[in-house]
Write a structure and sequence with these properties.
The chain is mainly alpha-helical. Helices cover 61% and strands 0% of the residues.
Length: 103
């Protein structure tokens, strides 16, 4: 049952499932896991940002659950490597060699 998933939600579900399915040989590939994580974080930030708009200042108040959802969406993008680091991992996997991130 898809419950009318949007195109982004279907793409995200497929990316996560591909990453999990390819992990049966050990850890998932850097390309699959970084792509899924980056895409999930971008969607979470977009959704929570759009959801907070109609709430005005209440969307940012700690008295309401929207603030927590927005904080979790932005914080999740930093845990395990920021979106920019995930993009470097994706590029490294595509071109076939590791990029030095320490310079």
């Amino acid at each position: 049952m898809d419950f009318n998933l949007s195109d982004d939600q279907v793409a995200l579900r497929d990316a996560v499932q591909r990453s999990a399915a390819n992990s049966d040989q050990g850890l998932p590939s850097i390309l699959d896991s970084s792509s899924a994580k980056s895409f999930a974080n971008q969607i979470a930030r977009s959704v929570t940002g759009k959801a907070a708009l109609p709430l005005g200042g209440f969307g940012y108040s700690t008295r309401y659950p929207m603030e927590r959802r927005m904080r979790d969406a932005w914080g999740g993008g930093m845990a395990g490597g920021a979106i920019d680091i995930q993009k470097v991992n994706i590029a490294s996997a595509i071109i076939g060699w590791r990029l030095d991130q320490r310079r």
